[in-house]
Amino acid sequence: MKSINKRGVELLRDPSLNKSTAFAEAEKKALGLVGLVPDVTETEELQLRRVMMQLGHKTTDLDRYIYLVNLLDHNETLFYRTVMSDPGRFLPIVYDPTIGEVCLKFGHIYRQPRGMYLSITRRGKVKEVLKNWPQKDVRFICVTDGGRILGLGDLGANGAGIPIGKLELYTACAGVPPQYLLPMYLDAGTDNEQYLRDPLYLGLRKTRPPTADLYSFVDEFVEAVQEVFSKCCIHFEDWTGTDAVHLLQRYRDEYCVYNDDVQGTAGITLAGMINATRLKGTKLKDEKYLFLGAGSAAIGLANLLCSALAAQGMALKDAQSRVYMFDINGLLEPTRRDLADFQIPYAHEHVPTRDFVTAIESIKPTTIIGVSTVGGAFNQKVVESMSRINKRPVILALSNPTEHAECTPEQAYAWSNGKGIYAAGVQFAPVHYDGQTFLPGQANNFYIFPAVGMAIFATQAKRVTDEMFIEAGRAVADQVPSELLKQGLLYPLQANILEAEIQTAARVAKLVFDSGLARVSRPTGDMVAFIRKHVYKPEYAIAAQVSRTGLRAKPTRRPVLRRRPRFSFARETSRK
Ligand code: NAI
Prior knowledge:
Elements: H1 8-12, H2 25-30, H3 44-56, H4 61-74, H5 76-85, H6 87-94, H7 98-104, H8 106-109, E1 116-119, H9 126-130, E2 140-144, H10 161-174, E3 181-187, H11 193-197, H12 211-228, E4 233-236, H13 241-251, E5 257-259, H14 260-280, E6 289-292, H15 296-311, H16 316-321, E7 323-327, E8 330-331, H17 356-363, E9 367-370, H18 380-389, E10 394-397, H19 409-415, E11 421-424, E12 431-433, E13 436-438, E14 441-442, H20 449-459, H21 466-478, H22 482-486, H23 497-514, H24 527-534, H25 544-548
Helix pairs in contact: 4-5, 5-6, 10-20, 13-15, 14-15, 14-21, 15-21, 17-18, 20-23, 21-23, 23-24
This protein binds 1,4-dihydronicotinamide adenine dinucleotide.
């Protein structure tokens, strides 16, 4: 439990301690707050009710996002209480898909700094800059250079919204305490001309430097983090595909780092593939995979999938031979001269083709995975072709935000005559087709990275390994009840996300201890109980002076809400 170590206006301005209208009379007296806040003591439930009512007056998700961030700037506990009260409703607002629009407009809707902004012009001084952060024990930095934000391309400093949103999910989904989290934007410029011309753009007004310069800046940053925050894990997010893969290779053996686009996406997709095979009655090794997109998400997933198959006894080469990729220049095959080193293992002998349907007809995949950023790329011909070849085609349309999904669930179910097994990267509503109700799952890595983060936090893991993401994927898959799986749901429901992530974190934590990577002693008891001990709860601290004297906060009498308030707010049409 946090202690209140501030008084008066200073206390009210600290979002981690501020209780707004919920200070008890004894606290107001002890903390110099009399007259500075309304003369009531509201329950947290009543505060939540006000938030819901005010949110109900907003007409767009962007407005709701701005409102919630403002709440976070003033009252962190109430913000997390709100988001954690109904994750299915609030995750799409604080993160995908609203975050895409937030990033596109970041410089325009900006109100207050959050996290750190570190520009390449500070080279040589990175350590000093990091020391400006007020918290000394930082356990996670989520860092982007804005190079490839969601499926929206190079957004430069507007990408700063991503690490902010990602780290909120560490807390909201898995209970990692917010004081240990630091969102970070590394500013090396942008090649986005629209932003370079925008007077309200908040980043450096220069184009991106050569890769060697960028990497030497990142080197200085990674090393400075080790010195300033010795227990910190660095989470790389939304770099371009090539940088994502190369930077991960550069640091993963020496430092506690991971890349969520590479490893987190892979973990969540693996979970979906495991459940798809459960539905079909097959095994992962029986499947053949064709990716649309061969960037960081595709490579991360393919590598993790092959590692999982290798762990089941298949030779790595054989595993790789079951994975094909198709990118903007066509099918990956050995005559192509534009392939990156990490794509070579998936370039198999085949006649060159730039037509995805031709590739499907000849390769005969059982599963297609869209990580191309191209909305609508799985068109009717693609789905029909998959349905001709497979009794139950698996169609994973993972690109986001919503408009970038390779196909919608309605399309997947209709074009496959209800046979398709489908998941998307964003949330879609249930689909009624031909007298049946289908539940499209959300293959979003927010089922994985917060849980892996919690396991790292609780065990103080020294390194982050692929095996941790494989175990997380398996744990997520195991948590889908069979009756929901039968309706096509490949992932757990968001309503229970905290509990699901605690279970996942416990399995990953066990692996961390088994692998000798933990920096704390192994708990003697149950691993789930061990994780629970570390979980943040959105509850207010009680002032030490008040709890010592035994004066407990006594709320004024207010109408008691019998059930959790469920205020509805109008959904935008873009959100299905
Ligand atoms: P990336 O930029 O590294 O790769 C994109 C790939 O798509 C490249 O190989 C490119 O050649 C290919 N591509 C582009 N246009 C194409 C076209 N017309 N036809 C075929 N291929 C085309 O991006 P990354 O990191 O791999 O992400 C891709 C998408 O996956 C993004 O939309 C991202 O938001 C989404 N994603 C979803 C996640 C989830 O949890 N659902 C997690 C991570 C990424």
